[in-house]
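Hi,

Apologies if this is the wrong queue. I'm a grad student, and the batch job for phosphoenolpyruvate--glycerone phosphotransferase from Staphylococcus gallinarum produced an output file that my downstream script rejects. I'm not sure whether the problem is my script or the file. Here is the sequence I used:
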Amino acid sequence: MTSIIIVSHSEAIANGTKALLEQMARDVKVIAQGGTEGRIGTSYDHIQELINGLTNDAICFYDIGSAEMNLDLAIEMYTGDYRVEKVDAPIVEGSFTAAVKLSVGGNFDETLQEIKQNF
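Support response: The file is valid. Your script probably expects a header line. Output copied below for reference.
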């Protein structure tokens, strides 16, 4: 199983994207991390905790600036056993493409390839 992680400066964007993906691909696990304590921003600590708590492989999407920087650092510091990869694709369109591919049986590598072909 492969999860999708959404990292956004906005809790509303992260949760809204998660809601969209869950409606379109019900069997795909989507994890949203947005904002910091009700405010706009990202937190390395929150992202690291999320990644360290994974129970399967994950493909990560982000919106802007420090979301990418904090996600990169959290992935770099990850010492777990699962594959965790950040992709450079629009957060909504890219994660939607990934969710659909995973929902029709695509594996981690096939899903990454699908994203790279489309974005």
